[in-house]
Amino acid sequence: MARYFLICSFLVIVAHWSAHNLCAQSPKPSAPKTLGAWKLEELLLKDGKVYKGVVQDEREYDLDFAEIMQPAGKPMYGVLRWVNKREVLKLTKLPKEEHEELLQRFEQFRNRTVIEAGRMEELLLKQDEVGGKLHHLYDGPWFRVDSTTDEETTRRCVVRIEQIFRAYRMVLPPKGRPPEPLTVRLFGSLDEYRAELRRMKLNIKNPAFYSTRQRTILAGSDLNTYAEHLTEIRSHHEELRKTWQKFDVDFQRETARIIGDLKTAKFTTDEINAEIRLRKARWNEQLVAQFNTITEQDRRNDGKFAEVTAQMFAQLYHEAFHAWIDNFVYASSRQNVPRWLNEGLAQVFESGKLDGQSLRLDSPSAVQLAVLQEELRRRPQPLEDMLADENLPFLDGHVQDAQRADRNYAYAWGLAWYLTFHEQKLAGHALDRYVSEDSRQFTPVERFEKFTGKKLAPFETDWRRAMLELRVPK
């Protein structure tokens, strides 16, 4: 009996300790789905899942499928899913004309599309030893990764990078491929990353950088420290689980002894059964609670990955967009992409919101929106000034006027966000004409007016009003 109460006392102490260290999170309820009147394509997977929507892009081994969702009482939106063809049981596509019509109709809802993450276990990684250090390598259809961090963290990073590249493809579909593959060099520590920048004679503070000459994105964070910490915690939790499993075996043995003691004390069978049921219920309740807290802590520690890598990924998304537009959409040597548009769109992708495993782009950046609204209220800058300045200064390590650069970033972001999600001007061939060599015969304002189909003055009035009324969703 004393042993039982000792075990329970220990459990109470651990439960009290856990209450200070763990916080349970309830899953968000999913919205009900109903299909609209559109004629949709259907994707049936081998695990029985069925998605209805439209094929956005299809390649030799995989495809991007936009599931069209219509929750009851809410606006239609889409979920862009990457699907390995090995998982597909049947794909029912519409005839070519109907497929193209469906794609055009879905274009109207691109601003309400979330991009699902792929699965880590499906990635094929290779290993190589360079200078006595183990590297994990990934060869994908759009980029390569050379990582100095551990395998699990590399997989997490590759999944996130693949996710943002699907976002690029959704907003600005590729028009070709570079002669040499794009490479992402992922450093497991900031010290490694900074040492490589010094070797390249670069004085850059950002945690990611795109080298146009080498077609390489470099990114670094303290990923190795995170991985080591996570391994230690998982090992500790595994020991805790084994300890509590042993306690459970001891409790069962103790229960058998208590039953014998109660019989000797002449308790009736009903009394003994009632006492044992009560003791087992209390024990099971505490045992389950303990295992739940350990599991919840594991989930929370896995979620720390987003916190550790937030700054690196924000900058990586920004730099990778420059790489995307330079290598896959508009080659810088042949096209005329204004710097404000390049930087503005890079910020749109940089501020994408990650909700669980889904990435959403249309939610405005709280930081940039606050800066822009303050500027528009106090000292608005004419859009003509930004459009006319082909060498608009941004904060790239060489600009001294940080306040001016912040304003330029905010204006570029606001205009790019508005054109992408409010006006939907990135669809079709309007953007191609805007950045073509032929457009150089017009002034920057004339080019912009042809692009938007509006005179600059009324466009600017509508844009300012929209940006001042814009709010960040809670």
Automatic annotation (TrEMBL):
Q: Which residues form the DUF1570 domain?
A: 314-424
Q: Which domain of life is it from?
A: Bacteria
Check the UniProt entry and state the signal peptide residues, or none.
1-24
Question: What InterPro entries does the database record attribute to this sequence?
Answer: DUF1570 (IPR011464)
- Short name of one Pfam family: DUF1570
Question: Keyword annotations for this protein?
Answer: Signal
Protein name per the record:
DUF1570 domain-containing protein
What is the species listed in this Swiss-Prot or TrEMBL entry? Anatilimnocola aggregata
